[in-house]
Design a protein that fits this description.
The chain is α+β, with helices and mostly antiparallel strands. The protein contains 3 helices and 11 strands.
Length: 161
């Protein structure tokens, strides 16, 4: 599966968060609140005003690698599964002027590389602001490249903000 920070390609949609646990599933028609395979709510895109991710970030480029290596080493030393799962973050979705906050499961222990979260925020707002672009959610692989470009353009277009 193709992934960029908190975004991951799933069949016919783009997921925000770990698709095996709490996540958002973005389809061309709606935003789905999911816990694993179970739907916890569906909201039409035209009701969504803003989506804000509250997840730990880091400036280190490969945070998942470090977390995986460290946990692997500790598990090897302990000779047992440490039972360490990433803590849930949260996502705040503004729907028709009201804020809804739900858990958002992360893919790995540690923070996401900060530019990937910035890119995810920009992509989500772009999808909210440009309804004609939501059809791209049917082919989510290309959207990860868009998120990366948005993150780069946002980083180069700001000076300290």
């Amino acid at each position: 599966m193709k992934r960029y920070g908190p975004l991951i390609v799933v069949p016919g949609a783009l997921a925000v968060g770990d698709p095996g646990r709490h996540h958002l599933r973005l389809t061309p028609d709606a935003l789905l609140f999911r816990e694993g395979a179970e739907n916890r709510g569906i909201v039409a895109w035209d009701q969504v005003e803003k989506i804000l991710l509250d997840v730990p970030t880091t400036r280190f480029r490969l945070p998942g690698l470090v977390g995986t290596v460290l946990l692997g080493a500790l598990t090897f030393i302990a000779l047992s599964d440490l039972g360490v799962d990433p803590d849930d973050g949260a996502v705040d979705v503004q729907i028709d002027g009201e804020s809804t906050t739900v858990p958002l499961s992360r893919h790995h222990v540690g923070g996401y590389w900060a530019p990937t979260v910035d890119g995810a925020h920009m992509l989500l707002q772009h999808l909210i602001d440009h309804p004609e672009q939501r059809s791209l959610l049917a082919r989510p692989e290309s959207l990860l490249d868009v998120a990366a470009r948005l993150a780069r353009s946002g980083a180069s277009g700001t000076s300290g903000s």
